[in-house]
Amino acid sequence: MKYLIQKGFTLRFTISLLVIIAILLTMLTSITSAVQVNRASLIGNYLQNNEQYAKKLASNTNELLVTMQQNINAIAKISGRSQEMDAQLFDDLFQENTQYFNSIVVADANRIVRALSPHTIGIEVGDQLTSAQSKMAVSLKAPFISNPYRATTGRYIILISAPIVDASGAYQGFVGGTIYLEDKNVLSTMLKEHFFGNGSYVYVVEKNGAIIFHPDKQRIGKSVISNPVVKNVLMKKSGSQRVTNSEGGQFFAGYAYEPSSSWGIISQTPTSVIVKPLHDLIKRVLLASLPFLLLILILGWWVASRIAKPLNTLAQFSDQATLGSARPQNVPDIKSAYYEVRLLSQSVKIAFQHLNQDLTQLRNEAGVDELTGLANRRTLDTVLQQWTEYHMPFAVILIDIDHFKGVNDTYGHVLGDQVLKHLAQLMRNVSLEGDLCFRYGGEEFGILVQRSGPREAGVVAERLRKEMERTANPIGVPVTISAGVAAYPEHGRSPRDLILKADEALYRSKTGGRNRVTLSGEAEVRRAQTGR
């Protein structure tokens, strides 16, 4: 180095150094851009997926609570038929409801226990219930779901009750079903598995901000009202945001409000999940670029003394590309009689083209659902906006796999994912070029049928429904779908209105018995009368 300083840097060394710097800066700019694009996409996907998952769990929780309240009401009606409840009958009723309740108690108007099951819960027939919630049940004389409280037995529980009235309509007491929040219960069974399996988890808070379900049982009963996500969900809001929880952990959180119980359901994923994909991206870009970089360095060192001017031109372009003022496809065409100069020029072009292709591919992948290969919610929103702005006639088919939770519970998530892929392939089979098949979230899918009215789209949806019903699927038993159809501009002139109308039609298909197609504002599509 001392010798070089005294003598001066050679032209070969200087030009090679400029090439190295220019190429490295360009690579750094490209990698930074790729990382930023992919990072934004990952964050958006996790926030969106957690929000959709929280909404789905809120819907499932609502259905569960309605079922539990109905079962308690039924037991209350049976209890009102006679003064004394047959012990064996009551035990049988409890056995039929063990998947919902940890215990069931019948108390009279004075809160004296008349029947209970099981018989090992810490109280006996003849004891008087003293909790504020039991007093409220007698005072209200109406069905209600209590706030969490500490029972006389020491358990932290939720009470779901229904009044008992005799044949003349006189109030006789109440039936109360309990959920032991600190033990295995119906809520923990439904909510314990998060669909990501990467450190994500779900927790539930009641209306005062206390946790009633959490994977860490030690946190049950603790107040987290200071958490901004909890504040939002208890204000009856649903959404998603990045949040730091009460223990300092950073998460991508989605939240949804459950109205029947005033509970908030939060699904969250640790922010650290995006670190590995970003590291993998950087490694991939570096490995793809390294051979071209080495080729450029070797050729540059070898012929620098003879190609100073062309190399200087390339270096200037690289500097411009680093600053973002030049595009990879505009690499200057070097005119030279030397084969090595032409090869170097071509290598630079190839290197930039590959970097640009990697970046383009990453941007494209950001719009594709990773599991099924269909368009994701972001691509759907973009296409809907474009088609409505150009006033292009089209129809929206929203699709939901019937009883998909049962598929996952019975056969596992791996086969459940195969069922999702199977449906995605059938969607591609029934759609035409120009249509957009997409995954809306979870087991919900859809097709944008280009230049189609509601009837034609209904035919496509019915064809897909039949294919799904009769085609062999990965779990070996029939799996069906329900669908709802809405068309632009007949049923709405904005993307939001169209999705809402299609979702309403889908809801009618599901409440009407499932395995059917419903057009917005019309009856179920039973048979396809015309082809498309």
TrEMBL record:
SMART domains reported for this sequence: GGDEF
Give the main location. membrane
Record keywords: Cell membrane, Membrane, Transmembrane, Transmembrane helix
What membrane topology was assigned to this protein in its record? Multi-pass membrane protein
Compartment annotation: Cell membrane
Q: Which residues cross the membrane?
A: 285-304
The GGDEF domain extends over 392-522
> Which Pfam family, just one, is annotated for this protein?
dCache_1
Keyword Hydrolase attributed? no
Q: Keyword check for Cell membrane, yes or no.
A: yes
Which PANTHER family has this protein been placed in? DIGUANYLATE CYCLASE DGCM-RELATED, REGULATORY COMPONENTS OF SENSORY TRANSDUCTION SYSTEM
Q: Please state what the protein is called.
A: Diguanylate cyclase (GGDEF)-like protein
Q: What is the lineage of its organism?
A: Bacteria, Bacillati, Bacillota, Bacilli, Bacillales
